Amino acid sequence: MVFVVFLLAYLIRRRLDRLNRLDGDALWRNWFRRGAKIQAGNESSIRTGVALVVVPGLVLVGLVWALGWFGFRFAAYPLELILLVLLMGTPGWRQLLRDYTDAWSRGDMQGAWRQVQNRLPAEERGAALSPEAMHLSLSKALVIAVFERFFLIAFWYVVGGVGAALVARGLVALAEQWPQHAARPRFQKLADLVSWIPARLLSCTLGVAGDLAGWLREAKNVLPGYGRNTSEVLMISANGSLTGYALDPEQFARLHPDEWASFGGRSLTAIRDLLSRSMLVWICGVALLVIAGVV
């Protein structure tokens, strides 16, 4: 039943993303407002934020366990479906990428930057970014967004249930949206911790879903990848798994200068297709685990 719940949630979430509906980030921001007031000198404290995420996760674990104990485990599945739909999703990205691609194809790099600047990491939002650097920054933001809002949740839901999925997604949300900016780097360390195994599992999946030979050449740089953060592991893996220099704009520009106007759209399409195939691999993997009786 875990497989059915996740598959339904994934399909519903993809549909909502196409309609640009139900942004889970807004729900996290509203929930984290309880941490907006902190005593002076405690701006870097993470206790309140961790409690706001861990306590609901433990409540969910207890609720699911209690229902299973009393023989009503099936009653938790509708709740799990709703929560997974809320935890997953990247609404807004589809239209943003379309507008960015249109601006890129017109050669309007300034317009392309204006479309995506709010999605780029804070340290990479400079208006003087080269087109190549801007595109790589956007590609990284896209890969990380999909990983944290789909693959991370899928992994922890299958491994630890909906409570674990809530905690993992909550730690990522804390690193991005906690009102006290001084505490965000500490939350990021916790988010990297819960992302360590899923990121490396996705790294292997990218090789299976893409160019395996290319991925094998890069595998030594990411597995086990001690000292590398999640974004580095996934970007190196994606670069090796993609063909046609989809994540190497400088090389593409040297080899195919006449096709530069189409590079932005082609690259993003290749990345999205690779991630979609990777999720299909994960879904098939979970199905096999269910058949084997592991899940």
UniProtKB/TrEMBL annotation:
Entry's transmembrane regions: 49-68, 74-93, 150-175, 274-294
GO BP annotations, alphabetical order: response to antibiotic
GO molecular function (one): kinase activity
Entry superkingdom: Bacteria
Entries under InterPro entries matching the protein: AmpE, Beta-lactamase_Reg
Record keywords, A-Z: Kinase, Membrane, Transferase, Transmembrane, Transmembrane helix
GO cellular component: plasma membrane
Keyword Translocase: no
Organism placement in taxonomy: Bacteria, Pseudomonadati, Pseudomonadota, Gammaproteobacteria, Pseudomonadales
Protein name: Histidine kinase
Pfam families to which the protein is assigned, alphabetical: AmpE (PF17113)
